[in-house]
């Protein structure tokens, strides 16, 4: 399961329906052009928290059908509704996804025992491995080393998608649990995470910048830090432009500019203005 995974975007039409043709094009672009090792499906980048249970299943279906066994597939099934998370975990496992992932339960201030029970409930429902999705800035859930250790006691918890800037904690997890997988979740910090010997990364900008991400990751593994730093700088120039223009709609517009039918974002995300579209195309011309 090691390697680089795209946090997969999903193509929607203007009414918010899944655009199957466009989604298939995004999948193939990530496999054939960006040459990713795997796809992380129905995460934040896939607008997972804006779509229905039926749409989540539809996306799992389409991605598995299109990707087949070409790459590894991780299904993000986490939800505030634990019954839904269990249902999605079973569904993705039956489809043949290589692993499931679940964001920490959010919004309500759950204590750690509630969080632990959430993960164990999901895992007890399926015969599959799970990757914790830790993104404190969006969930408000900050777990310490000992709490990660408690979750790792379940052998089916094989690792974590670590989307946090706490590199002290990242190093401590790496040192304490060398057998567990750690995926970096911040594209702009890939080099820093790679130096700490993460096992891979899961990134939204990999939809358009996956080849460069691989350069950073592999150069760091080879100890060629100066070269990796240069590629990270170029990557961060790209990311700064994307963030300034609107993260998800800009990546989708850049994909469309490159001939991939990435569609629209679901409301309440806004569409780019004509000026924003032009800016996205300028960013693509300059950095891709």
SS strand fraction: 5-15%
In CATH, the homologous superfamily goes by the name Aldolase class I
Mean pLDDT: 98
State the helix count. Answer: 12
Function: Catalyzes the reversible aldol cleavage of N-acetylneuraminic acid (sialic acid; Neu5Ac) to form pyruvate and N-acetylmannosamine (ManNAc) via a Schiff base intermediate.
Binding site for aceneuramate: 44-45, 163, 185, 187-188, 204
Subunit structure: Homotetramer.
Family: Belongs to the DapA family. NanA subfamily.
Question: What report would you give on this structure?
Answer:
The chain is of the alpha/beta class. It has one domain: TIM Barrel. 51% of the residues lie in helices and 13% in strands. It has an 8-stranded parallel β-barrel, surrounded by 5 helices. The longest helix has 21 residues, at 225-245. The protein is globular.
Short description:
The protein is an alpha/beta fold.
Secondary-structure map with pairings?
Blueprint (H helix, E strand, L loop, with lengths): L2 E5 L12 H14 L4 E4 L11 H15 L4 E5 L5 H14 L3 E5 L8 H13 L5 E5 L1 H4 L5 H8 L4 E6 L4 H10 L4 E4 L5 H6 L4 E4 L2 H16 L3 H21 L1 H11 L16 H14 L1
Parallel strand pairs: 1-2, 1-8, 2-3, 3-4, 4-5, 5-6, 6-7, 7-8
